[in-house]
Every structure is written in structure tokens, then in C-alpha cells.
Amino acid sequence: AMADWAPIAKEYDPLKAGSIDGTDEEPHDRAIWRAMLARYVPNKGVTGDPHLTLFVARLNLQTTEEKLKEVFSRYGDIRKIRLVRDLVTGFSKGYAFIEYKEERALLKAHRDANRLVIDQHEIFVDFELERTLKGWIPRRLGGGFGGKKESGQLRFGGRDRPFRKPINLPNVKNDFYGEGSTEKRNWSREGTRDWRTRDRDQERSRDKRWGERERSWAWGDSERERDSREERSRGRDRKDRDR
């Protein structure tokens, strides 16, 4: 129902996340099927309070924990920073989790730090969703709220790409067929009648001119006589229109 609709997902549903307005009934790509069939359980090894943790993404691969601490400590006291790194190479994967000590600092960073530029990269900041959003499926299993337009795997319902408000189809249909006010309906019908009458008159005059041309060509009239006959015909048409 429209009363329950919200631009941000309250519960993660891969099918809705793959829909621009959350109303699709069938998956449009294979990743959504994978997410729907996945049986994902959040990592129990992750510690800290999920309700005080921010997710920070689109980081420069050269950005370090020290740089993140320098930037995000402006909003309040930080309890922990976890920059996610590759287990083999140790290189940054471009995203991190920052846990604050107070909710006030969390909310302030969520409000002000999003789209902040760090090391020439515009970052993305949101609340942690893995342990707070029911039904969450990560991107590697076909879920998440990420994705690129080129891949055809866009995901909606998050802060970066919220659901678009669905079109109220019954109201649009009523307006389209002129089922609004009586005054508007009458105007619409009259306009349609005038338009049809005008087209019918134009077709008749065009057929009449073509008939005269064919007769003149068949009778072998001179070019001057044909031109004068066409001029008289156009004059009659103008008089008819003026009436």
C-alpha cells in the first residue's frame, strides 16, 4: 500500500532492491535470483555495536586508518576503525567501518561526512546494514545496494539510490481519459469534434482538387487554364473556411 511506502528499505528484499520503485514481481537479472536463493548469515566474528557503526565506501586505495581517524574524529570520539583489506595482499578494498562511542557523533558524521572528498575521492557514508537491516544479502551474493548502470545490476532502497515513488496508475488513467471535472470533460469532447471535422473538410477539399487535376489532364487543357482552375478552387476553399 502507498501508506507503507518509503524511499529507504525497512527490510531487505532482493526482488524489491532490483526494482526502481520496489514494485517488480519478477527478477530482471541473474544476480537477484542468486540473492533470493542465498542463505546468508551475518559474520558472527564481527564485534562492536552495529547501531553505532558507519559504513564508509569509495575510498582511495591509498587511504589509511590514520587518515580516516583524522577526518572522522571531527564528529566525535571513535571507538574503533576497521579498514577492510585483502587477506592475501593486504591492500585496501576501498571501504571501512567506523564505530563511534556516542549516537550523537554517529548521526553527525552520517549527515555531514557523506560525499566528503578524502585523498581526491568522494566518499559514501551510510549506517551499517549487515547487522541492522533484516534479510540483508551482501553484494557478492547478488544483493546489496551497490552496482553500476553498465552492469545492469542496479540496486535501490538505500541512501545512495532510494526507491522512486510509484506512479498512481488509477489517477493517471482517469486524467488521461478526461474523467476529472465536468467542465474539463466537455471541453475535451468539443475539441475532439472540431479536430475531426477540420480533418474531414481538408480531406474533401484535397480529393476535389485531385479530381479536377485528373480531368484537366485527361481533357488536354492548357497549363494556364489548369492554373486558373486550381486558383479558383483554392479561393472557394478559403471562403468555406471563413464561413
From TrEMBL:
GO terms for molecular function: mRNA binding; snRNA binding. Residues 148-243 are annotated as: Disordered. Residues 52-130 form the RRM domain. GO terms for biological process: mRNA splicing, via spliceosome. It is found in: Nucleus. Keywords: Nucleus, Ribonucleoprotein, RNA-binding. CDD domains: RRM_snRNP35. Residues 148-163, 181-243 have a biased composition (Basic and acidic residues). GO terms for cellular component: precatalytic spliceosome; U12-type spliceosomal complex. This is U11/U12 small nuclear ribonucleoprotein 35 kDa protein.
